[in-house]
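Audit log entry. Action: structure prediction of a protein-small molecule complex. Ligand: 2-acetamido-2-deoxy-beta-D-glucopyranose. The ligand was supplied as SMILES and no pocket hint was given, so placement is left entirely to the predictor. Protonation state taken as written. Sequence taken verbatim from the request; no trimming, no tag removal. Recorded inputs:
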Amino acid sequence: MGGYYLWSSSAFDSKSGQLILVALLVMIASFYTGTLFGTNSSLYNSISHLPSNSSSSPPPSPGTLSLSPSPSLDLYRALIVNCIPTFTNRVGLSYRRIPLTIPDTGMDICPLVFNEYIPCHNVTYVNELLPKLDLSRREELERHCPPLERRLFCLVPPPEDYKIPIRWPTSRDYVWRSNVNHTRLAKVKGGQNWVHEKDKLWWFPGGGTHFKHGASEYIERLGKMITNENGDLRSAGVFQILDVGCGVASFSAYLLPLNIQTMSFAPIDSHENQIQFALERGIAAMISSLATKQLPYPSSSFEMVHCSRCRVDWHKNEVCIKEKDDDYNSTDGILLKEVNRLLRSNGYFVYSAPPAYKQEKDFPLIWDKLTNLTSTMCWKLISRKVQTAIWIKPENQSCLLHNVEQKLINICDSVDDSNLSWNTPLRDCITLSKAQSHSHNLPPRPQRLSEYSRTLSSVGINQEKFISDTLYWQDQVRHYWRLMNTNETEVRNVMDMNAFCGGFAVALSTWPVWVMNIVPKSMNNTLSAIYNRGLIGAFHDWCEPFSTYPRSYDLLHANHLFSHYKNREEGCLLEDIMLEMDRIIRPQGTIIIRDEESIISRIRALAPKFLWDVESHLLENEQKTTEPVLICRKKFWAIL
Ligand SMILES: *[C@@H]1O[C@H](CO)[C@@H](O)[C@H](O)[C@H]1NC(C)=O
Ligand SMILES: *[C@@H]1O[C@H](CO)[C@@H](O)[C@H](O)[C@H]1NC(C)=O
Ligand SMILES: *[C@@H]1O[C@H](CO)[C@@H](O)[C@H](O)[C@H]1NC(C)=O
Ligand SMILES: *[C@@H]1O[C@H](CO)[C@@H](O)[C@H](O)[C@H]1NC(C)=O
Ligand SMILES: *[C@@H]1O[C@H](CO)[C@@H](O)[C@H](O)[C@H]1NC(C)=O
Ligand SMILES: *[C@@H]1O[C@H](CO)[C@@H](O)[C@H](O)[C@H]1NC(C)=O
Ligand SMILES: *[C@@H]1O[C@H](CO)[C@@H](O)[C@H](O)[C@H]1NC(C)=O
Ligand SMILES: *[C@@H]1O[C@H](CO)[C@@H](O)[C@H](O)[C@H]1NC(C)=O
Ligand SMILES: *[C@@H]1O[C@H](CO)[C@@H](O)[C@H](O)[C@H]1NC(C)=O
């Protein structure tokens, strides 16, 4: 089989396997799982999990050694057995206590069943809340974080037979089955070519519900629809897209050749684990849903919002009657108003769903409602073909002003621009864009990366500071690659946990990685400026876990994040944030932390308890004084 796959010689060469082994001599056990590609090896630290009533063996002692019965272990056995002492961590279900305590034996390891633990998307917990939720607005699909004492406080283990993910670009098409061992999606969506089973792999042919024959053809068709058959999406000025209900994110994957950046999201619903598949493939995505709250992205950030059978009822979702303004009766379409918020002017809303083309059932009625809503917002239907309708949000606001006068639509009270879209209820109104929205002046990528947004000046960042920040991160990223000692091909999914102006992501833009730029909710809104640079990201509050699966990222960057959260309430103590980092980083992934000395030494002391290897370095900060930098690496361990 090996010869058939182009990547078999490079992606899993035995030499790098050996190197990893040497670097990780403290490993207790390793196994050799390679059969498919011959030489891929996965290395584990093992934590045995003995049944508590086991009578044949002595009572379970913490960290008992258990070697896998793999025959090819012999070579390493002697070495490994000689350096047993590493672990004392215990497997056990532990919850976050107040005040927080970390066992002397190290962080507990959650039992294996929690290998896909996402604290704020626990279906069982949400079911408890159901009586209080507005189901007509699908509130149950949104984030619901349990109170602190009901959060797990243990390290999330990988599933059985987890393997270091297949690397980009191969991962676009193939991922390890055992890493996302869920068959439902393949069963339900195999016919639409979302994903198929192939031995030990999942194969993604690049299809989707509305692009069974591959996303490329579909993307080309959209480009033609917008440009009167002459051009592609790029020539239509589309560089940043929001994909609503993205499935396994094939749309995003096939936009990359056009250098179009896509933020993809989907809820956790019956299409099990779609986001997990997307992330495992190395495609930018997060869990989110459009229901009662604004999406955690800034206004005017996308040139296209895309919905291909995204299972959002755009024509429904009324705001609660009591919130209704007597003066004004149209309460429907609040979700489309959120799309309007996110779109740049001259941006497109692409809708590929049955109401756009089917004449049966209630589809024509839905279409009628939809077009009534879009016309009150003054969107213009520019094309309706095959199975897709496309509207444009025009720049000229005279129509909008007219509809406001007619009381067909509400204008939002001018809200302080500094408010971040985080836990903000949806608003049943339209914001008029500023005198001259400069969106259409944005240059294409890659020039867009150096775009300075004037909004930055209102938060005290002038152009000079912006440029020096950009240059600074170019320099730092060079240092990082040197210090990380990681093969560049091993890094694909990256998160900058405190992204400021996005300088770190810009510096990485020449590598084949994508960066999720996070702007904490307690910071100023620099995310709009990050989007204006052609990058993607989200608002987040690190007092809560992030909406993603465990083992999502290869690299986390935390620049002065911990000091920003210093002296905050329970829930975002240093240990809480470390635990969340451990959850979302992949085994053998790298975490770069820069901060003040006291924080760095605390993390360095705690790292072994989290099963992280850690190295300290010194680098210059922007003030040209040296500051400590930690390069942490999550060990690859597993419960055997
Ligand atoms: C990184 O990995 C690739 C593919 O495995 C390999 O071809 C390349 O030589 C490696 N580079 C370094 C610096 O080890
Ligand atoms: C206890 O041990 C018995 C015999 O080994 C086994 O059948 C049973 O499933 C175990 N119970 C638990 C809870 O592990
Ligand atoms: C999910 O919620 C249920 C009900 O609150 C709880 O019993 C369970 O432990 C939670 N699961 C996780 C993984 O937190
Ligand atoms: C997937 O999980 C099932 C049990 O749920 C197991 O039998 C199977 O071996 C797993 N497959 C892989 C590829 O890990
Ligand atoms: C809203 O509806 C009420 C009764 O349903 C009607 O009297 C009123 O004129 C309507 N207002 C507008 C602005 O259409
Ligand atoms: C759409 O608007 C037209 C004209 O204002 C109206 O006659 C029609 O009933 C509306 N359709 C729906 C479904 O609201
Ligand atoms: C906007 O549209 C109105 C009506 O179509 C037109 O009179 C006006 O000149 C337009 N404004 C601009 C700036 O193009
Ligand atoms: C904006 O933020 C302030 C302070 O957090 C808050 O009081 C206000 O209600 C917010 N406004 C909106 C419209 O969300
Ligand atoms: C936000 O911007 C204001 C105004 O420039 C500035 O004074 C403040 O320090 C900034 N806050 C943060 C957290 O950077």
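Audit: result stored. The two ends are 29 Å apart (CA to CA). The CA atoms of residues 618 and 627 lie 6 Å apart.
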